[in-house]
Amino acid sequence: MPAASTSRAVGLFATPVIAESWPEAARFNQALRAAIVERRASDPGVSLSNILGWQSGNDMTRWGGDAARALSDYVTRRADGITFDKGQTDPARRFAWSAEMWANVSERGASNQTHSHPGAYWSAVYYVDDGYGGSDDPALGGQLVFLDPRFPMVRMRTPDLRYRRPDGSGDHHEVWMRPAEGRIVIFPSWLSHSVRPFEGPGTRISIAINLVTGLVA
Amino acid sequence: MGPVIEALFETPVIVDSLPDAAALNAGLLSAIRARRASHPAGVTRSNQLGWHSDIDMLDWGGAAARALVEHVVGVADEHSIDIVSPDAPRFAWLPEMWANISPRGASNQFHCHAGAFWSAVYYVDDGYAGSSDRRLGGELIIEDPRMPMLLMEGPDLRFRPRPDSTIAEPEQLFRPASGRLLMFPGWLRHGVKPYLGGRERVSIAINLTAFRRPA
Fold first, then answer.
1. Domain ranges of chain B
2. ipTM for the assembly
3. What does the pLDDT look like over B87-99, one tens digit per residue?
4. Chain A environment of B166 (Cβ under 8 Å)
5. Whose CA is closest to B128, among B74, B203, B70?
6. How far apart are the C-alpha atoms of B93 and B100, rounded to whole Å?
7. Are A144 and A125 spatial neighbours (Cβ–Cβ below 8 Å)?
8. Does B148 touch chain A (CB under 8 A)?
9. Rounded to a whole number, what is the distance in Å from the CA of B114 to chain A's nearest CA?
10. A84-94 pLDDT tens trace
11. Fold (topology level) of B14-81+90-152+167-212
């Protein structure tokens, strides 16, 4: 294998997923939980990608109080930071975001079917309570799963034969992320994702945000 | 926890240079020119203008062609893994190989190589005659496999996960260089911009189809 020492792989067209802790989690999580629990008592919710569990309407910025606005503002500022507008010619004129926000409450057995968010640019999920009760047992499920946007093409011909990643391992067409209280995950809205069945002992409370883009006049 | 930026689902493009390119290229050039003389019609595929040989160059390209394929197979082995049997891969490669001669004005329409796991292009002579003038064109263009979905919601918006991230355009250009080998997944859509150099460009394409070895 004479080429082994000279060839190098360049990784192109990565799909970014940003995971971070919300600095204001300790300050606002109680209020978020209270607002969601109260809303659930009066709102039958909607049924979209969720299997079991309760999902609110997407107007949480109207009923979620200061805590919801603080979370929405933070995610919106992060979206500003991770987006480049190549069409911006006037420093005062650039794209802006409008946020849709909803809450999810998941008891044992709840999951979300694979879906994406057409019409939005960035989507985010925030975990008020991961529901794991402090356990790190993977058997508790509930992972957020991202699906390779090139799937199934990338696997069609020889499913077991994979392109190597920089660390030498084969590529995967699913990436699983385990939720954690206070964590925000931001990803492109077209990226298909799902949630594995949640088997934790507690009640998971999460908030989803879609950022829709538009030009500032 | 500070931000963790995951770069998921990347598509690999392999860049390599042949160690003994000068000697190899002389052998490849004479074989390709002889084949064009005896088979001037060639075939027409994605190529606009230019001469495109049949895909049996392994049969008529001589020792130089065999050496190039051997090298490409080595690179393919290096950058692939059989996840079920990584130490004793159950797959082998079936190569198809052809030559292209591109005069001024030649280009290739966007296409992909259905069935191939890896596709390779090797530049015997980039045709630029040492010039670095970008107006000579002829770049390989590779299109983001997420297009056009990637741009549907905000045509001017690009991902910039870090403040210092390179802004990635959905078309990536690779300028050919004599002696350079590029490899990419066969399903990855690509083309060649009109080539405007003064000298004929000579390049070789290789498709590697993976097949399961008999047990």
1. 14-81+90-152+167-212
2. 0.91
3. 999 999 999 999 9
4. none
5. B203
6. 22
7. yes
8. no
9. 9
10. 998 887 777 67
11. Jelly Rolls (2.60.120)
